[in-house]
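In this supplementary section we document a worked example of the pipeline. Step one takes a protein sequence of length 212 as its only input; no multiple sequence alignment statistics are reported here. Step two produces a three-dimensional model, which step three serialises into structure tokens for compact storage. The input and output of this example are shown verbatim.
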Amino acid sequence: MKFTEKFLSRVLLIAVVFLLVKIKAQQTEIKLNGAFVPLTMLNVAVEKPIHKKFSMQAEVFISPWKSLYGKNMQFYMGTVEGRYYFDEVMKKWYIGAYGSVVAFNIQKWNYLRSAIVYDDNGNPELMENGNIRSTERYQKGLAFIFGVSGGYHFTINDRLGLDIYAGIGATQSLYKGYYKDNNERYDNAENWNKSGEVIPTRGGLMITYKLK
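The serialised model returned by step three reads:
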């Protein structure tokens, strides 16, 4: 998993650098998600028009922290999105469709608190000091997301703008679950667990800068 995370992070970084070097077309925008800066997460994107109403956006979202506020919150996500603007490209309301791939080491929302550990017979496990064992759990794996999005692109001046957006997607995950107190598997799967759900997977406030 460590190899996967490092490899994916390097691929995403190279992709962003490549895009920033290659983009020369008028109206191409580079973006930074200001909503996640206080959380020390990096979310940058490049959007390029391909028609008077259509654009393509490449996006990278990185949380490099193995522990953030005491919780596992490490992931590397790459996203490609197609957008349709109702007025004019990169102006006002739009809808989009996107696909993402994620490598993660996180605690899912329903595993953020400690819970009692039970043995194979359904009885609470006891520690050496006689206390009932209780610990948090975390998950490591890969996820693939396909979803729809919507937002509004504000124009501040001929260079600067704001892009407010949100998206919901169908997520398919392959992961392994671990106890935090000893890093051993808590799930009964022989290899990978599999899960699928429809959840909000993206959103924020992008500060945009138009290249000319």
